[in-house]
Amino acid sequence: MKNLVALLCMISALVGSASSYKCYSGFSPNSTTCKQSEIECLGNRCMTACQYVIRGGNMFKSILKSCANETMCGTNGSVATENIMYRFYAKCCTGHLCNTDEYELPPEDPTPNGVKCPTTYCIGTPEECNSTSKEMNCTGSMNKCFQFSGDVLYPGETWKNVTGKGCTNDDACKYNFVNTIGIVKRPGTELIC
To answer: pTM value?
Structure first.
């Protein structure tokens, strides 16, 4: 009987210690704050991802909170064309409901780095946009050239065929815009670095 009681105590302790962690979860495609709920996560890490898009002189900030996507933790992506700037940052933490942080995006270094890329951003076919291509000086961590063409849906707008060329960095190339917040791409739309 003593052995049975000891075994039950051990099982109870193990079940209690194996409880799942929770993270705050929320999504706001054009805001720096989000209504958040709690979700259960397989691991013990949570994430807050922030981004902004500057387009047509307007800045759109967005935030996402969720369980951690471990491959994204610590990423800091930047993309720039002659008239658009896109940046994202994913910050992860360890512990139950630890992602209480607010909107945060580290500043981009504006210092030219010696890389020059063709640049254009237009709504229309790639052929229409090629005639408007210029050259831009890349700055900070953006040490690669990119080109992008595909159908994009920005919050509150209709589908548009977008073509762009400009400067980017390794993290933006690695994630190929698959983790943008509130900006939807049709399948097959990709960033080529």
So the answer is: 0.79
